[in-house]
């Protein structure tokens, strides 16, 4: 009995040690935080606090906050340095540490200035995004053709109404109170940024919300609204604003949908056009397929990526992947 007890105790110690080692190795953000402290001497933050606490009602469920883990890597001391300095550092660190920063910035028309506030009118000092222009209470009109008839859609802005700064002090709300997910979407619980199949820290991320909302809308109403509806509600094609679909499918699925259309195995027999290229291995079946694929690319890879991020704007804050 004594031998059995000793063996079980040893096994337990080994298991605890393995779990501790795995837990430590699963925290790559700690190295990022150490580098952050070297870059910004004097930065103080509690490493045990690895989430942001947005300051609006919908950010809580039964008294508990919805988790946002973005600050595990990005400005972990945002609570002490404030929104203006945090916005400055976000941009600086992006260009310093992202290997493809210049290419990503060019593709997504990122100017290098991150908003520090959501304000009623917007502005440059401090940098602010305008709720009047991009808030849910404002609408932009877009025209599209459906069944030969010209229709007009009123597209509400992407900043939700619960971020309306009209009653806030100075009519502005800082990004330390707004958080990241409201504008950038992304995988709010993810922390893996390098290595392994579970790399997901920036999955489904909206890189530059203002650009993809305006440019994406132009692409959507020119090419997609006639089948998917003026508000993404669906029609001949499936609804794109459905929260179950947005919460379930990742950006790779949407890319295949648009790039390959009906030539992709997930869409055999559908009428979804091929907007990019024919899927590898596709063989036309006259019984199954309703049309022959065209080899002419209609949308570039970047335009497709912009469309996907535009569609992500319909994902509600409370919708979880």
Q: What is the helix content? A: 25-40%
3D shape: globular
Number of separate strands: 8
| Unreliable sequence segments | 18-25
User: What's the helix-strand series?
Assistant: HHEEHHEEEHEEEHHHHHHH
The average pLDDT score comes to 85
Q: Biggest β-sheet: count, sense, barrel?
A: 4 strands, mixed
Rounded to an integer in angstroms, the radius of gyration calculated over CA atoms is: 23 Å
SS class? alpha+beta
Domain tally: 2
Q: Please report the number of helical segments.
A: 12
Could you give the distance between the termini? 49 Å
Placed side by side, the strands forming the largest sheet appear as 4-5-3-8
Proportion in β-strands: 5-15%
Commentary on this structure:
The protein contains twelve helices and eight strands. It has helices spanning 2-25, 29-39, 78-97, 101-107, 131-134, 175-178, 181-184, 209-223, 225-228, 243-248, 251-260, 301-312; strands at residues 60-61, 64-65, 117-119, 123-124, 127-130, 139-146, 149-156, 172-174. With 321 residues, the protein is of the alpha+beta class. It folds into two domains: 27-207, no CATH class; 208-321, Orthogonal Bundle (Cytochrome Bc1 Complex, Chain D, domain 2), CATH 1.10.760. The radius of gyration is 23 Å and the shape is globular.
Keywords:
321 residues, alpha+beta, Cytochrome Bc1 Complex, Chain D, domain 2, 2 domains, four-stranded mixed β-sheet, two-stranded antiparallel ribbon, 8 strands, globular
